[in-house]
Amino acid sequence: MDEVAGAIADPVRRQILVLLRDGRLSAGELAERFPISRPAVSRHLRVLRESGLVRAELVGRQRFYTLDPERFTELVTWLAQFVRPSGWEHRLDALETEVYRTRRERRTGGAADARKEDTA
């Protein structure tokens, strides 16, 4: 997870990952989209490749890169603990809480009613 977090710490590498989200691109196509030198883009691609976030395939003289989203799983799982539920998740959590409260009240209220019936 540290290797993945380190790889995505750089904004150029994050932008490369976003570009690869829609499909594979050659190293040249990726380099054209940045105002930095091709060797600099190549170094960023090497970091991403070594972290397992992208795969490289050599086709003829061109190297094509594809995203490997499986490597994000551990990091996403770790980050999820800091995100509060929103939308439907929040509402379903509230419904679950209400169901448990109602069940608990029925159990305790039902026992109290049974005691009242015994004493009358």
From TrEMBL:
Gene Ontology MF, one: DNA binding
Domain HTH arsR-type: 1-87
UniProt keyword terms in alphabetical order: DNA-binding, Transcription, Transcription regulation
Annotated Gene3D superfamilies: Winged helix-like DNA-binding domain superfamily/Winged helix DNA-binding domain (1.10.10.10)
Keyword Transferase: no
Top-level taxonomic group: Bacteria
Signal peptide range: none
This protein's name: ArsR family transcriptional regulator
Source species: Nonomuraea polychroma
